[in-house]
Amino acid sequence: MNPQKVLQMYLMCSYLYYIRNIAVIPDDEYDGMAKALLTNWDSFEHQHKHLVTTDDLQAGTLYNLTEDQYPKMVIGAAHLLLDQYESNQRLKGQ
Question: Which pTM was predicted?
Answer without folding.
Answer: 0.93
